User: Fold these one by one.
Assistant:
Number 1:
Amino acid sequence: MRIRVRYRKHGKVRFTSHRDVARIWERALRRAELPVASSEGFSPRPKLHFGLALSTGHESLGEYLDIDLYEPEAQTVDLAELPELLTPLLPEGIEVETLAVIDRGDLSLQEAVTSTSWRIEVPDIAPAALAVATDALLARTTLLVTRERKGKPVTDDLRPGILHLAVLGATPPDAPEPGAVLEAELATHPRSVRPAELLAAFDPPLAEGRVCRTHQWITNDGATREPLAPLGAPSPAQPEARAS
Amino acid sequence: MAPKREPVTSAYMDGLWTQLEPLLAKVAKPARYIGLEDGAQRPDHDPRQVAWLLAYPDTYEIGLPNQGLQILYELLNEHPDAVAERTYAPWVDLDALLRAHGLPLFSLDTHRPAGLFDVIGFNLSAELTYTNLLNMVDLAGVPVRTADRRPEHPLIAAGGHCTYNPEPLADFLDFVVLGDGEEIVSEITDVLAGWKASGRTEGSREGVLRALAGVTGVYVPSLYDVTYDGADLVAVTPRYPDVPEMVEKRTLADLGDWPYPKNQLVPLTEVVHDRLNVEVFRGCTRGCRFCQAGMITRPVRERPAEQVRTMVAEGLRRTGYDEVALTSLSTADFSGIEKLVGDIVRSTDDGPPVSVSLPSLRVDAFGVGIATQLQKARRTGLTFAPEAGTWRMRQVINKLIREEDLYQAVEAAYENGWRRVKLYFLTGLPTETDEDTLGIAELARNCVALGKAHTKSPSVTVSVGGFVPKPFTPFQWFGQNTVEELRRKINLLRDDTRKSHGVQLKWHDPKATLIEGVMSRGDRRLGPVLEEVWRRGGVFQEWNERFDLDLWLDAMAAHGVSPDWYAHRHRTEHEVLPWDHLSAGLHKDFLWQDWRDSLAEVGLPDCRWTPCYDCGACTGYSIEHIVASATPPAGGSQGTGQDLRSSSVPVSLLARRPELAGTTPGVTP
């Protein structure tokens, strides 16, 4: 049986890395005494499948993890109680929101997710000035960036990957560095556009304040949904209205 | 989590977190500064309670696993009159950002400024971290020199193995604790609570330090005068009649009374020794003459096996770790170790796989037999520490293992599926000849040859460290080898092993060995050197890539002290040593006799299983070994009282293994 877990990562714990979070989950699942399936061989590892990595320091309202459970032991697990069981076993700031059984034949999270939405705080800039810069960026037809890959320079165009970009307003009062807030939807295929790359593509480049991944989206045959709907939302089977 | 309740006078109602947040986004591995570990406590700070900040003067990943710090953290938070938080040395990137933004060192638990605590207690385990201590004190906003501190500043304290000679740090430490910390932290808390209640008035610092000097195990360096005659130290004497002439270490009578840590911290990010650790005994009486830990932690105090089993079972359940280490200075010597590990392995049979490890493997087949039981999977490498290359040299250092013991251990390792063997050695030992040094290469080659019968390309890694003599060991009188001499010996080994297929040689930088040696047996005249090295940016000197010998040599030259005099000079019998006014219980004449025996190549048996030779550690404090079994463990000759010179030492390979195998069905993968 494969279950998909949706969780949040926010607050101090956002400074843990993707690898750290993987180890945190392994320990939490052992403590929960769930029948997590393991790989074969001399160093068996639990079969956990993580979605797109979240950069160290970024928060998220929608992180996902697929967990394989052994049959038939999985039948004895009360899935409805699992979020309340798991959250106390995780560090403060990682909270399980919901989970559901998924089809083993489903695409992996890394393959299935087509775009992600972000809320990005930009320090030291007024919302109006950020709006001007945003319009200028969106007016460009190409945004070429060059990066080193396996020792060779590779040039990509980021522009097609910027699906939505808008200024939400000034940063909230609790922001450590006052400024303005950007909302962005960034594609993950053919390659992921990272928030840091987006900020660097502005002219002049923007500084990065707090960053939060608000959603991950699966667009399939024109219908868009989240890998697992948040609590209180329509069930994942029903396509949900897109945020942008 | 209960809401925080801080004194309203605090300028930092919410700690420093909001100011730190933007900085953490800019530094490497920010998870080391967030706290939040399972087992972490976020105490309410009540002005009536003594607030301890427990500090480790190295990075989080090195410091977090430190069991001593974790034990005190729990005990102090259980104490009605104390709270405790933790801090570790911020890496240079965060250090620079904190200073640029005018922010101080902070606690990890509530991100509270370090200067708001009543006492900052450092764990000192390595000489090269001394400058980190100065840096952390300064970053806390506290003057580095005790003489410049005012009543509003926290007291700066230290404990740990290096405090058996704290003299190089005497200018910077308000007080020092010798020995086991479990009982004494409570007594110190009582004294500090009185100081705090009195309002920490002008001039009260001297009073509280004077009171602390009355607690057995506490040393207050500023209450002693030091007399020199030219270069020679003549005396270290108390300035007041109520200050003890000799400061005695503290020793727990029974480890079984202290089942700590009960809630071992589970870090959110990678650290060294990232596993459950259960201390199975404290102290060691093998009597290896180079080993300070084995001398200062006597006698042997075993934890009851039943308590070990409980701590392992509860620890695994609580933490979610899949590995547990049974820690001590020589775990294979624990009474009934086979039964204990058998029980632990069996108890984890039903659940997910758990690996059990013994961090210190004894050099004999018995140790390998246990390791084979424990390491169900991933038999990649095994490590042994013969320490010296010839039997003569091993008699000098009292590491009484014969070549046959090592070969049988290595043979057993290869037989049981291990492919790599790592051997630890010291070079620069007293009386060492080139023949002894080259004996290391010879042993390694013989081990490779043994492995050939079992695997196509056996690999033996030889790791060589330069020997640094330590206080309270029989070698405290020995002048250590120069950097050039150590380098020559390493080159001898390099040339000799160049064509030895399967032998890989690794070595530690002899340059760092020199500074460790200077500090290890140094005196108060090194204080200005430490301060200058720190002021010139010499922090994290224990990190290879940051160690800067010239910085140290320049500072020593500037302050007129000679590294040669401190490190390379042999001491004489009646010379006053800088730590003579401190006591680890060991009689100085016992150590001197053991030093003479060493030069005469005479070994000394383990007093756990043979009659007492009165080193002083038990008799002086009216305590005894607590050992469940009076019989030496099976297998190998190491310290078991067997006739080491006869050709028929009864070493039987995996002596009692059938019994163990019988009690642990289903162990083999």
Note: Chain A has a mean pLDDT of 92.
Number 2:
Amino acid sequence: MTEDLESEVTRRIERGTEDSVLLARDVWVGVKVGSGVKPIVRGGRLNVPKGQILGLVGESGSGKTQFVRSIMGLSSLEPGVFSGSALYRVGDGPPIDVLGDIDAYSPYSPPPGGDGMPVRQRIGWGWVLWRRRFRERLDALRELGVGFIFQNPMGALNPYLKVGTQLMEAVRVARPNASRAEAEEGALHWLAQVHLRADRETLGLYAHELSGGMAQRVMIALALAGEPHFLVADEPTTGLDSHIRREVVGLLHRIMAQGELSGIVISHDLPMISRLCDRLAVMYRGRIVEEAPIAALADPESPNHPYTRELKIRAEELSRGREGSIRRGSERSPDSVDAQLSGGCPYRSRCLVIADRLVDPRLCQRERPHLEWIEEGQRVACHASERDLVGLGSRRLVAPSLEERDGDV
Amino acid sequence: MKTLWLIGQKVLNFLLVCLGSSLLLSAFVWISPGSPGRPRLAVDWDRVALESTRVCIDSTTCGVVAALPPAPYEEASLLIDGDAAPRQVREDFVKQPGPQFASWFFGTLWGGMITGALLTEAGDPAVTRMVEAAQITLPLVFAALVGGLVLAGLVVAFLTWLPFPALRGVIRAFLLVVSIAPVFVLGYLLQKQGIVPHAMTWPVLTAACLVLAVGDGSLGEIILQFEHEVRKLRSQDYVHAARLRGASPLRHMLPGLLLPASAISAGKVAFLLGSVVIVEQHWVLAGLGDASLLAARDPADPVLLLAVTVVVTAVVALVALLRDVIEIVVDPRLRRTSSEAR
Amino acid sequence: MSPHQLGPGADPPEPKAGELLQTIHRWKEADYRLVIGLSVVFTLIVFRLLALAIDVRTNCDGLSADAGWVAAATCMDIYSPSGSTGRFGGGSGGNVQAFCADAPGYLLGTDRLARPLALTLIEASEAFFEPALLCCAIALFLGTILGAIAGYFRGGLLETLIRFFLTVVASYPRLIIVIVAIGIFTAGLYDPGRATRLRLAMISTILGLAYVPVLALAIYQKVGSFQREEFVEAARAHGLSHTRILGYHILWANCAPVVARHFFYLFGYFVLVETSLSWLGYGVAPPMPSWGNLLRGCDLGPLLSSQFIAPVACILITILGLQLLGDAIGDHFERGRK
């Protein structure tokens, strides 16, 4: 159950028979560092089935935000994406590849599958043409109806315009011919949907006059006012007080439980992901290391990737109030540069599987594991066998802490 | 209304700055030893103390009062430094520092400027001279300002679009080097192209304006500041969000560009008014800069110097006022009142 | 951080074109601004030291070049403080050039006054080197103090007064105020040498004072941003005096990049102003050379002659180099702090 199934699924998607709203494959995104370019998303892949919400999980710095923003046209283009494809299903037609032909337009393309590969900046007139096509495809995407909830509400609201103006503009995305009165009515409707006071006074407020929670809700209203079929929420609760966080999560749950909506929720908060999402994708240092149904989060015997296991342990300890071990754990093992660049598994320096000696460490050092199907709907990138991964979970069931693990390594 | 109150504060600030700058300069002129002053006021001989009050009658001639004149006090006797024999001097050539400064400043200087009674050395009223000169200089400076902003905007837009990073760097470096050239060097280059400053024709004026907008580092600074602002603005999430909604990102970027543009303008006006001195000299234009140069020539004409400086500082302060008003109108954060929700 | 890493299991090295690009990238990492700026400053210092030994009027076999430049002087629009050109009018054309054509200083030919151009360019550095240092010293000293005090003791009358004063001074265009000062203080001086020295002193003092608001505002903003952070309160709680906090922790440790940038920018700006004023005739008067007054002439001659290009090149390279150096040093200070 490996490459054959994957290519079969891919073929089905390309033929348009698979019911996916978004399929991104082999996406490489880079940022400028000094005079070079450093890839922060390496061969990223995402599959969002229609009507389902995908949770993208990973620690900060794993590249999840950059990944999603790049394939939606929300981040800077240079160097930005330099390889990959992102197919969107818009209406009944063939899927649109937003990043189409990017390799053809760039004079330098990376060798496939390499680590630490030399990446060059885009140059040339081909790039101008590609940029224009990219924008045209994004325009076509708007038919799908795309909404994005940004991480920082204060940054995403225009400080110079009133809230009402921005809301009415968003309403006009879904209803281009709305009159001013209709647009205002729509704006008030969406304010009510997010449990804000729906009156003229609220419409007349400016961004700096809103509290954090209010601003977040206004942003959700802005995203919803376009009546999207595809909604992305990027860390929607970071920085909010706990009671506001509960309200926002409840609001999102209500919205996302409505049948037709597909989407992605990006977060490192596992309980929220398990409440809101149907599927899970785990990202580590720019790579997707696991794809699974959401039940795999709650199931202690699920054959999760060791990194997912680490996240679950941390979440569990956090909920029990044992924050100290989590902080220590994260300080204990910063990933060395070697792990990134010498072609082995990037997670090996903190891996529980190696700590428990379930796998030959030299294998992990030599060869990078690829995503392989383990169970129906679940894929994991690890050299350990399914049995070992399940065993890892059960052994760790009785409140292990990372302090105990220190003694081993 | 909050907005009007804030604007009123800025207008008051403007008036105070104008007053303060002319006061500072006038005091400077009044107390400097080489300055004639020439207040042409009646001297209060009752207050003059013999042999201790130091008075000056021109740039190099100072002394102490040797003998008071008999009533009705038309002439005094001054002992000039290094010269034993006292000299008779007329009343209107004697300067008294201190209390007379105030009456000189408000009455003679400002009063005379406004009513036209204040005369320059050449004999014409300072105010008419200023009006004539300003008619040449101010349009030139503002055209150069707007032209510089437009040019820089075009350059920045082009550089942002250009897909060749190396070429971008080369173009930027080239423009910076050209911009650093002093205005008279650029003037010579244009002169060689045949634009000779022999008459005030449109080509000559356009050339002068261009040289003013580009030279002395002016264009280079505006380009750098614009690039910085545009880069900051494009990375703002609300611009991305607008693009996602299908709204025009330009409409959202416009207030964000207007504020730095007005700030840049306010800074540039003072700079341009300085460079215009050289431009006017080169292109033979009788503007404010040329007037200041004439006034600084020997024998110096302090009235003209003061008049020019007053006009020029008023213009600078006015543009700063405009910038403040634009900021208040465009940026709602400045209109925050204490009663509003946080 | 180079993306080009080789290790076990990595891909084979990329093709030749890529290697060349990588080499160029590595060269690019050297800060070219620092290189250019430092070489310009070094050259200026060398020029200034050489200028101590050079006196172009008597360099040519002991022959005074007065005869030569007297003739040319009637063509030049020389501003004389006395208002008349009586001292310099008339005179026969000299053939000084014919005598001195083999001397080394004639590498670039002669200027309009028949002086050897190369040596004249070097001696012209006298015109701006020390005055610029004086100007920068004044501006830095006053600007830092005023800006720091205003930024540190916020919210009081002192801050308002200082800011108002700075706004007032900033509203004078710098060049105009320099001309006003020259007009007031140096009119009536007959000796061109003394007049020049006094004018240079005036220019540097007044320009320094006029630049104070710019620097003070920059320091004010910087100090103000630190004031908001908690470490100031913590330091006060530990008993450190205001002077120590402001002088060492805030200014010395953190405002160095701002000060460095403005120092070099002001030096370059001084060169620009001095050159322009000398060209106008209100700065350095002949026979003392300055790059500005070398460019002044009623008959400009061909554009590609060294008489035009050499002084212009000197001016451009100097100002550019100083600005680049200021940027580079400012960036390095900031980067070192991060």
Note: The CA atoms of residues 247 and 253 of chain C lie 9 Å apart.
Number 3:
Amino acid sequence: MKILGISGHYHDSAAALLVDGVPVAAVQEERLSRHKNDAGFPLAAIEWCLDRAGLSPDDLDAVIFYEKPTLKFDRVLTGLLQGWPGSWRSYPKAMKNMLGEKLWVRGLIASQLGISTRRVRCIEHHQSHAAAAFLTAPTQEAAIITADGVGEWATLTVGTGTKRADGSSEIRMLRELRFPHSLGLFYSAVTAYLGFTVNEGEYKVMGLASYGQPTRIDEMRRLLRPTADGAFTLDLAFFDFLGKVESGYSSRFIDLFGPPRKSWQPIDLRNEEGRRLADIAASAQALLEEVMVGIATNLQRETGLSDLCLGGGVALNGVANARILREAGFARLFVPSAPGDAGCALGAALYADRILFGQPHKAVPDHPFWGPEPDEAALFRIAREDGIPAIASDELIEDVADALAADKIVGWVDGAMEFGPRALGHRSILAAPHDVAMRDRLNRDIKYREEFRPFAPVVAAEHADRFFDLPPGGARLARFMSGVVPVRPKWRSRLAGITHVDGTARVQVLDREMEPRLHALLEAYGQRSGIPVLLNTSFNLAGEPIVNTVAEAYSTFRRCGIDLLVAGNVCLTKPRAVRAQILENVA
Amino acid sequence: MGAPSLQGDPPREVAQPGRGTAYFGDFFGMVLRPVHRLIWADPQRRARKLLEFAEVEASGGRDLVRAAELTDDPVLRARYLVHARDEARHADMFRARGRALGKEATGGGKEGLADWMAPGERGMEGLDLTREKDADLLAFLHLSESAAARDFARYARVIDKDPATRILFQRILHDEDEHKAYTRGELSRIAPHRARRVLWWARLRRLWKAYLRFATALAGVMAGVVLMVQYFLLLPPFVWLAKRNAKREKSGWIFVDEKAPR
């Protein structure tokens, strides 16, 4: 069967294509439209997926949307009614939003693709998350937790998944928490309070948390209280999910924690205000971890299973993931490369294939590389036109390792683009991880971002334990950079560029089979430095999506302090004189 | 790419006699001057508008980068990248000044101008850059820069009591003039025989987009009024039911699977 999965209309739209039970293409719309977190209908992503497989819309057996719009409308309308008359500002906006387009998504998809609406189906949001987490994971039976802001009604679900010997698959949802009681919305409200953009700045809260102490956790517990059955409930007096959609916190929240930070105010961790914000971040983070560990522990005891699959936006919280792995009793924790809404496109397609249509389970290749591939020849042409020195060679690895050892910063484009928010070795900026100066240089000259945000390392799997204190099962969690683990104390000074203030790092543990060229580069770099670890950050500038094509990589290379651009076997060097000349020629 | 100091080299004065006359000849500028003066008189509103301008400039810069990535013309690629760098610098300058003003202001945040009231230069106004030809894009950019220059000159003239912001506008206006010149020059280079036609076509498209923005805003207001009437007149009975049901909801887990252990 040929099944197209679509997610969209909220944030981070995406499309994924399944042919005979196996993914052949998946890409986020933002990578093609070049609008970060593009929430629009993912037409470009759909077109690319179909082109990749050489299919037309008529060839599709089914198109699956990742959530049920009528259920979502039910939740939105009910919420507005319950919030009456305080919801008067939100009502027109929400109704125009839902009635204008979102409620009619089956018709929209059918008209955009020129197919019958009978071939378009919708499944529930958290079923999509659960399928993305479980059906892509190399496990036969696992407990499943999905947690995000909100889907239709559910905000957090627990269940189990089974792949049987006869090829059938089952995902069984046991119970769920419903809007407005949401861990994701709780964290998003704190994100907004701290002056970061909701659905984008949550990882900044996690980074900031390491600089603080959870001194405000008791106050946080007034916001989010445990229930007798092991779940939790939000005290809605502290939140305003209807009145202020962009923030979500109420005036009582401000009374409790003080004035919120404005987005343009800098965070200076040396002064009292900066420390107050860091303490609030630390307290929210600690509470989120506590809740997630509690729910996971109960689920492990209840199911007796050794594997846990985690999906939903909350699964991007690597600190919480690592605590779950250490404390909840599971031997392995699987987080897909795209646990957020984008990954739901793949999850929806897989759910339809295995569950709705009862197709036999097939193992999904255990890598995140489902996107477009770079055109090396195009890069060579552009470089020649612009007078940038370029070489094409089959043996670039040694040269690149030399450059990294000489403290050069490398833009690395290699093979199909990652599906998900992390750069896992195909669209990465690589650098030596040893000192703070490199981190500061990256922040200043390339990423233009806050100093409290850490950079992540990538390490060859064979050497991971030597440098990082991985818990049992930690290598698996770190396969897609989904866990934050301690850097071993003896290496912290020599890995200062990637060691966060609390001695941890969000490490990627790289198997040779998953990405042989980057693995070879790590080995070559290890031979020179004695440490086969590199700093690995996403290949993009602030406010832009990760690069897709070589032209985008090239423009990024031209606009920032990257010294070398490598795309497959083509390498561009940027001498200082040329860099100055490029900008001055036409200025 | 830090925010340049506003105390650095003196900017080229844009309200020069020749140009100034041209701008003063602008009928709308004359008519709207009291409105602009009123808008820009309040430091809070000034800060908010400058921060919004920063977003517009940053967005325009990203669009220009995209244009550079898509063009096959190496000269245009280089031009667009330099232009994008300028836009990013303008964004930094607007942001720095907006923040400086905002320190004294209690407002801020995202609320503010509707899209149709944004300044003349609105990024690429939703153009699909993947489908635009170089000539069309240059024509569009030329007109966009001209509109931005006109708007910024108007603003600079009405900000009497805030010399730092006035100097900021004048500095940026200097760049906008250069952008106008290069886009016109490049348009003549790549479409020598049809540059004027392309420019007129671009003017018509801008007019159409302005109409669409206005019509969308008007439709939005009308829909808002209808929905608001509905909200207060039709919903109350359903509100009562919804609130009654909300009271009955128990907290904690909702069991989805009937066979699940409780």
Note: Residues 10 and 211 of chain B are 39 Å apart (CA to CA).
Number 4:
Amino acid sequence: MSCHQTPEIVADYFDQQLSPQARQALQQHLSDCQHCRAEIALLEPARGMLLSWQQQSVPDWDRGHGPALHNHRQPLRKRPSRAAWRDVGRWIPLAASLILSVAVLTQTRLDVSEQGWQLSFGNSAAERQLAQLDVYLAEQARIQRQQNQALLQTALQEFGDSTADNLYQLADWFEQQRELDIRRMEAGFQQMLDRDYQTVNSVQQLASFVQYQNEQP
Amino acid sequence: MDHDSELIANALNGSLPAWEALVRRYEGRVYNYSLRLTGNRDDAQDLMQDVFLGVYRNLERFRGESQFVSWLFRIAHNKAVDLARRRSASPVKDQGLPDDPDAWPDAHRTAEGPQELALAGEKNAVIQALLQALTSEQRLILELKVFQSMTFDEIAMMQDISANTAKTRFYAALRKLRALMEGHHELSPDP
């Protein structure tokens, strides 16, 4: 009669580190399971044979073999000096990245002109450029304004007095429209005030009541 | 006597005597381990050298979180697995077993008498031969459990298997060994 637990039971039986609780459960199982008892009795000599191994002495050998072989290629504690020269290629990209980062952060600028080249830091160069741009734009606006005035004077001379009369009429019409708008706006405002008169009165009464309440001891 | 940690620290600082003292402390266990796994002295010595070379190369990585001997045998285990793979690629010649089973050692014999002591080498040779008839996986699990007294949980972690699988392998290895002792290659399966 077989037992599906036999592999685990046998392994536990030969396990010297088994906990007392597990050992007790194992003994309980063995007392009930003839198959596992038989299996242990069968395998016990195999384990016993292994344990009869006689410790053999180590033949002479080069114990410094490891350090000798290892140090020949890479000493354990002298890695920094080795790394400084042999691994220099590994540091070049890192150094380049660092230099570029510093250049970006300090806004380093290299200006090359006919007079030579100039290295500048910070935003002074950029500010100078912006100031130059402002002066340039102001000058361009002034020129444009002069050109427009000249063009307008020329046009007025060409169209003569009739054109000038039309312009005056247009200006009068604009003035009348403006006055009309103001009157409409005043009428609307007055209407709104009349509509909310009662509401304002109610608020005033409420305010008076609150003030009266606050004045009571 | 210096602790392992002191010897390790001194060895890392370049002290050859400290390294050699560390090696002497564990070389017996590693050599016998190698002898049982490889089955012959030359290969055992090569494996032992390989193990200690691995230990030396990785000594800086030993953090002292586990016992040094556990860490050392983890390296030894990996080296033995590597060796088994190389061997499976180019199998070695069968060592052969003695024809007479009475010449095989068993648990009831002791090595206390002079005659028994003289037979000790022969006993070991038989054990080595029997172990070589197992698969490398079975040999390793018997080694770790019987000789290195590791728990099944530790073996499971080392071999990246479950504890139950480790127990099943151990049982199968023991049965195979028993069958070899009886002069059979396989035990008949359970009815």
Note: Helices of chain B lie at 4-12, 16-38, 41-58, 68-89, 114-132, 136-147, 152-159, 163-181.
